[in-house]
Amino acid sequence: MEKEPEPERMVKVVRSHDDSIKLLSCRYRSSGYLTALMAALQDTNDEHARTPANHLKRKAELTGVMAAGPTRNRFVVPTQNALNHSLGLLRQPWWKIYEGLEYSSNQGSDNGAVILSRRIQRRDEPPDSLYVIQKEPYHLSDEVRTILKPMHDNIVTLYQVFHYEETLSFVYEEMDISLEQIFLLDVDPWSINPSQRDEQIASISQQVLTALWYVHEQLHISHGDVSIANILLSRTGTVKLANIGRSIMNAEPKTSDDCRAFAAIFVALSLPMEIKPSQDKLASTACDFHKALHNGNILDTLQHAYLRSAHPGELVKLVIRTMRVSYNPPDPY
Fold first, then answer.
1. Quick one: pLDDT at residue 326?
2. pLDDT in tens, 127-150
3. Fold classification of 177-327 (topology level)
4. Burial of 122 by CB count in 10 Å (0-12 exposed, 13-18 middle, 19+ buried)?
5. Which of 92, 156, 169, 240 has its CA 20 to 30 A from that of 107?
6. pLDDT at 227
7. Distances in Å between the alpha carbon of 208 and those of 156, 199, 227?
8. According to the model, what pLDDT value does residue 269 have?
9. Which pLDDT score, from 0 to 100, does residue 213 have?
């Protein structure tokens, strides 16, 4: 049996005048991407070292003349359009580009601080979105097999990665609430719209499973931390999986664990007022769907009859209500 040819790789990097690196484009559909990226970065380091000192000095002088404000380096302070179409790996602290505003507790679980921040802009730029900074300890090893920008509607968008000292800082989009906040309500979360209870649970389930399919089949890893803290919702009814950066770093292949983890969440969603919810109390269709989750075949599970009633629009009231009743003054950064 002939061995399949290795997938095409393309890593293009550009060095900016202040020694930062911006990944402009990439196309790599298998493991080993970070290794390829680091090799490309090393190539730029070698080229930089071979460049005559007088040329570097002249280049720096020209760059200094053209500098103006925080956006003097178009590769370091990216535009919104650049954030939407490329993933940046920058060798500097994140606070050189983003201004920390407050600590956040509803943007996915994290071992360290989760910081809500805003991109530093010129005065004539329109107001930008808020971003979430999450920091992870970083060690380059063989376990880091792939890093690329998730382009799926049900995964929290990863905009940039900062490498500074022994820490990777990931820049994500901001979401409105986490599933954990819904569970912390003192009342049945489905009581606001009881007639659409199954439609709401089915919508959450369908979107989470779609995200997991992408993680498993396109990124070829498992999420590894499917929990109520890492399932985020927006006021448009969109559900997304958070902390994909950590999943990429760990790159665990045990995809079946993700399905079993969500199976437990599904039971808790269906019986939110139970201290110890059990699948034995589920209705017949929901019970059969729970069994399908345990089987671990996501494509087959997405075709299950239970998900036919999914309606993302029914989640809007739930999200807005949760935002109102669970608001806590943020901790200043």
1. 76
2. 666 665 565 555 544 334 344 455
3. Transferase(Phosphotransferase); domain 1 (1.10.510)
4. exposed
5. 92
6. 93
7. 11, 14, 11
8. 93
9. 94
Query: Domain locations in the chain?
Result: 10-173, 177-327
Whether residue 162 is predicted with pLDDT greater than 80 in this model: the reply is: no
- Who wins on pLDDT, 242 or 68? 242
Any idea of the CA torsion for 74, 80, 86, 90, to the nearest 10 degrees?
A: 50
State what percent of residues in the chain have pLDDT above 90.
25
- Classify residue 69 as exposed, middle or buried by CB count within 10 Å of its CB (0-12, 13-18, 19+): exposed
Q: What kind of fold does domain 10-173 have according to CATH?
A: Phosphorylase Kinase; domain 1 (3.30.200)
Q: Is the dihedral of CA 125, 128, 132, 136 positive or negative?
A: negative
Segment 39-51, tens digit of pLDDT: 444 444 444 444 4
21 backbone dihedrals φ, ψ, rounded to 5°: -120, 130
Mean per-residue pLDDT of the chain: 69
Specify the pTM: 0.62
The 3-state secondary structure of the chain, one letter per residue: CCCCCCCCCEEEEEECCCCCEEEEEEECCCCCHHHHHHHHHHHHHHHHHHCCHHHHHHHHHHHHHHCCHHHCCCCCCCCHHHHHHCCEEECCCHHHCEEEEEECCCCCCCCCCEEEEEECCCCCCCCCCEEEEEEEECCCCCCCCCCCCCCCCCECCEEEEEEECCEEEEEEECCCEEHHHHHCCCCCHHHHCHHHHHHHHHHHHHHHHHHHHHHHHCCCCCCCCCCHHHEEECCCCCEEECCHHHHHHHCCCCHHHHHHHHHHHHHHHHCCCCCCCCHHHCCHHHHHHHHHHHHCCHHHHHCCHHHHHCCHHHHHHHHHHHHHHCCCCCEEC
